[in-house]
Design a protein that fits this description.
With 435 residues, this protein is mainly alpha-helical. It has 2 domains: 31 residues, no CATH class; 335 residues, no CATH class. The chain is built from 17 helices and 2 strands. A two-stranded antiparallel ribbon has the order 1-2. Helix 5 crosses helix 7 and helix 7 runs antiparallel to helix 8.
Length: 435
């Protein structure tokens, strides 16, 4: 205390403040004379963006050239020219409105966990649309046919397949929720989970990520059935009660389903609790009381021995290299297909036969416009990729082993180059006249 008193007692001066005696706490308190540091205010909208956000899908030729030169993924020597998840993400980021983009969203989209999540969601939505069409045809056929016990067996297989594919999505989504693996720094309470929860910021990140994933799935599935994809994805993550897209569109698609369709498409793990206790259908799949192959929970993350063909199919679809998908007979929308069959915006190119027919049919301006419209409808309705054929489930579910494997799989990294490109583009869009 001698030094303090020499400088003026308890009120001795320092370079950036002085000490004072606080009578309330009966202790010395250091008071800084420096001005408070400015705190950067984060402006977050009161209501997070929902499904009303519109992406551009009419990119002109000049914009396509700009995208191809500056933002399209560049091939490395010897690398096959096939469509990857990164290519689909690039299109979604390029056509997204600026008001939903953020540096955090771009960083999160370029994580291995998020990429596995996107691929699992593409697989799940593709099979959902496939089975929805199949069930619609079966319901129409019931007008002239009689249901047999074989119908129950086949529909039970459809239901189990959809449940397993939803579980693939749920396991990656659960990792994101708890901030596990590479998603730790995106947890709403910080990497150490000790910070105060920023609910508004977390809600905005979730809503924008969900809307971006809907767009990515729609692009990966050849730009078809957008409303079905958006409704089903929002139902999976928010349940029927909180499905804002359904509340806005008011389609009533679940009430219009027959009993057989509802049993197959919605599964057996639905729970109708009170609003406060409601879990999303994805979480219901995790906690569902049904026979679940435990190896599904680690597909693409943990090495498992004695993998069945079914688990191998799902593992390669979620975490395998895209260049091997076609070789292994795995269908994941347009992912894994050759880029030569698509234009810059990943729209399927017309075949040479269709172009020849359209040229032969053109005889006047009116006929030319009609032929172009019909040709566009043919391209939209043609099958760009085959249906998914999942391997059958094993007749006997493998019981839990005495110890679970802990050897990690070789995690495929995301493109750091593309991440930096999109971050730089966002900075230019947000600060066009900045330094």
């Amino acid at each position: 205390m001698a030094d303090d008193e020499d400088e003026g007692g308890f009120g001795g001066l320092y370079e950036d403040g002085h000490w004072v005696w606080d009578e309330a706490t009966e202790a010395l308190v250091f008071v800084s004379d420096l001005p408070p540091k400015p705190v950067e205010a984060i402006h977050i909208p009161i209501k997070a963006p929902t499904g009303t956000v519109e992406f551009r899908d009419d990119v002109d030729l000049i914009e396509q050239i700009r995208f191809r030169r500056r933002y399209q993924r560049k091939l490395k020597p010897g690398q096959p020219d096939i469509i990857t998840v990164q290519d689909v993400k690039d299109i979604a980021l390029f056509t997204a409105p600026v008001n939903i983009l953020s540096p955090m969203l771009i960083n999160m989209l370029h994580l291995p966990t998020t990429e596995r999540f996107i691929r699992a969601l593409v697989l799940c939505c593709q099979y959902y649309l496939q089975i929805a069409d199949e069930m619609a045809n079966r319901i129409i056929e019931l007008e002239t046919k009689v249901r047999t016990p074989q119908c129950e067996v086949l529909e039970s297989e459809f239901r189990d397949n959809l449940s397993d594919l939803r579980l693939l999505v749920a396991k990656e989504y659960s990792t994101m929720l708890i901030g596990g693996g590479d998603t730790k720094k995106f947890h709403h309470m910080g990497p150490q989970k000790k910070r105060r929860s920023l609910s508004d910021k977390d809600a905005r990140l979730f809503e924008t990520l969900l809307r971006m994933c809907v767009q990515i799935v729609w692009l990966a599935l050849g730009r078809k059935a957008f409303n079905q994809i958006e409704l089903e994805v929002n139902r999976l993550f928010k349940s029927e009660i909180f499905n804002a897209v359904e509340h806005n569109l008011n389609t009533g698609y679940i009430n219009k389903m027959t009993k057989e369709e509802r049993a197959v498409l919605l599964g057996r793990c639905l729970r109708h609790d009170k609003k406060l206790n409601t879990r999303s259908p994805l979480m219901n799949e995790v906690f569902c009381h049904r026979e679940i192959d435990y190896r599904l929970m680690g597909a693409g993350v943990i090495k498992c021995h004695q993998i069945s063909p079914r688990i191998m199919y799902m593992k390669e679809a979620v975490a395998g290299p895209e260049e091997r998908l076609v070789e292994l007979g795995i269908v994941l929308g347009i992912i894994g297909m050759h880029r030569s069959a698509f234009d810059t915006m990943l729209k399927p190119l017309p075949t040479s036969n269709e172009i020849g027919k359209s040229k032969a049919s053109v005889s006047s301006a009116s006929y030319a416009s009609k032929s172009s419209v019909s040709r566009k409808s043919q391209i939209a309705n043609q099958k760009v990729y085959p249906d998914i054929v999942l391997p059958r489930k094993e007749s006997r579910i493998i019981s839990f082993p005495s110890s679970f494997p802990d050897d990690p799989e070789d995690i495929r990294p995301c493109s750091e180059t593309q991440r930096r490109r999109w971050q730089n583009r966002l900075m230019k869009l947000l600060h066009p006249y900045g330094r």
